[in-house]
């Protein structure tokens, strides 16, 4: 009963992000190419027999009831038919609110792990559907393959973008997703492409126009990074990824960054590290 299982909860990048239109409910139609990073929060889960969900490590600035880890666990609670509980701890390394999808990733890791640990036997499609109500990026982390996504990000076609090294830099600003989507400056009519036209070189992140206009520090950092290598914003920002030909190149560019810029170097991967670890968890559970 007291075994602790540990799973990675990775970041994602939007290698491009096109806004194709606005739906009557105000949400935006998007086309995006998702890839995972081999850079993750670490979530540890210990089964208990007290029928309770316990978060052992609160996250600064996130109330327990709002924490996507707790919300994901509570969503599965009514579906179990035993007295098992769970004790959850997280080692948070992913910057929050930077477009790296850490909260959605945490939620997906919990859905995937509890499906095994609580023996729920739900298919991935069901977990992805449940997860969508927690965040638009939860389904991609539940499915676990790099993908071209449409709709609000829930219709997924597997893709295989190059698994290159990235430098990810976080400007010192906080940008709300809602603010970006409500901006009059957001381009909203990028022509739809087909899943056969995924070349990232000729694509863009439409949200970059808004963020670089309203946050000069992001514009400045992006301009600096573009001098070294192809660079783009992920999600609604403000993190910027720089595509590098090697880990060494990424580290060399990182060394040039101003001291106030948080950054990390990671490899793009087309299978989520959570899913590789889940196979081991399943074997250990027998
Ligand atoms: C655009 C992406 C790309 O990955 O950005 P990041 O959050 O990763 O930066 C995500 O799909 C974001 O998903 P998520 O973070 O779950 O967004 P939500 O909380 O649902 O949305 C916050 C607000 O943004 C607006 N919104 C969001 C998604 C969308 N397709 N159209 C919208 O107009 C809505 O006003 C919504 O109230
Ligand atoms: N477990 C969690 N990890 C990160 N953020 C969380 C979590 N639970 C709730 N949140 C909230 O979700 C917001 C968005 O976080 P995150 O997913 O990291 O960024 P983004 O949506 O920009 O990729 C955070 O600012 C935080 O308030």
TrEMBL record:
The active site is at 12, 137. It comes from Thalassotalea euphylliae. InterPro entries: GHMP_kinase_C_dom, GHMP_kinase_C_sf, GHMP_kinase_N_dom, IspE, Ribosomal_Su5_D2-typ_SF, Ribsml_uS5_D2-typ_fold_subgr. It catalyses: 4-CDP-2-C-methyl-D-erythritol + ATP = 4-CDP-2-C-methyl-D-erythritol 2-phosphate + ADP + H(+). Belongs to the GHMP kinase family. IspE subfamily. GO terms for biological process: isopentenyl diphosphate biosynthetic process, methylerythritol 4-phosphate pathway; terpenoid biosynthetic process. The gene is ispE. Pfam families: GHMP_kinases_C (PF08544), GHMP_kinases_N (PF00288). ATP binds at residues 95-105. This is 4-diphosphocytidyl-2-C-methyl-D-erythritol kinase. Keywords: ATP-binding, Isoprene biosynthesis, Kinase, Nucleotide-binding, Transferase. GO terms for molecular function: 4-(cytidine 5'-diphospho)-2-C-methyl-D-erythritol kinase activity; ATP binding. Catalyzes the phosphorylation of the position 2 hydroxy group of 4-diphosphocytidyl-2C-methyl-D-erythritol. Pathway: Isoprenoid biosynthesis; isopentenyl diphosphate biosynthesis via DXP pathway; isopentenyl diphosphate from 1-deoxy-D-xylulose 5-phosphate: step 3/6. Residues 200-260 form the GHMP kinase C-terminal domain. Its EC number is 2.7.1.148. Residues 67-144 form the GHMP kinase N-terminal domain.
């Amino acid at each position: 009963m007291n075994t602790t299982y540990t799973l990675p909860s990775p970041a994602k990048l939007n290698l491009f992000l096109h806004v194709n239109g606005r739906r009557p409910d105000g949400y935006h139609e998007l086309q995006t190419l998702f890839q995972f990073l081999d850079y993750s929060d670490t979530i540890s889960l210990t089964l208990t027999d007290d029928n309770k969900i316990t978060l052992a490590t609160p996250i600064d600035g996130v109330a327990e009831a709002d924490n996507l880890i707790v919300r994901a666990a509570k969503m599965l609670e009514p579906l179990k038919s035993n007295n098992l509980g769970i004790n959850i701890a997280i080692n948070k390394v992913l910057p929050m609110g930077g477009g790296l999808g850490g909260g959605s990733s945490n939620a997906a890791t919990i859905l995937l792990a509890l499906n095994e640990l609580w023996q729920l036997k739900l298919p991935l499609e069901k977990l992805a559907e449940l997860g969508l109500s927690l965040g638009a990026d939860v389904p991609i982390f539940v499915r676990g393959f790099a993908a071209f996504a449409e709709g609000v990000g829930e219709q997924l076609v597997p893709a295989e973008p190059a698994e290159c090294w990235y430098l990810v830099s976080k400007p010192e600003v906080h940008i709300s997703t809602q603010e970006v989507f409500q901006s009059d400056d957001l381009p909203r009519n990028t022509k739809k492409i087909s899943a056969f036209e995924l070349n990232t070189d000729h694509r863009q992140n439409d949200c970059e126009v808004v963020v670089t206009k309203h946050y000069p520090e992001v514009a400045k950092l992006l301009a600096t990074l573009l001098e070294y290598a192809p660079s783009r914003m992920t999600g609604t920002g403000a993190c910027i990824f720089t595509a590098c030909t090697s880990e060494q190149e990424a580290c060399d560019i990182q060394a040039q960054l101003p001291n106030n810029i948080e950054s990390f170097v990671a490899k793009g991967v087309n299978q989520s590290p959570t899913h590789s670890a889940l196979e081991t968890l399943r074997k250990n559970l027998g």
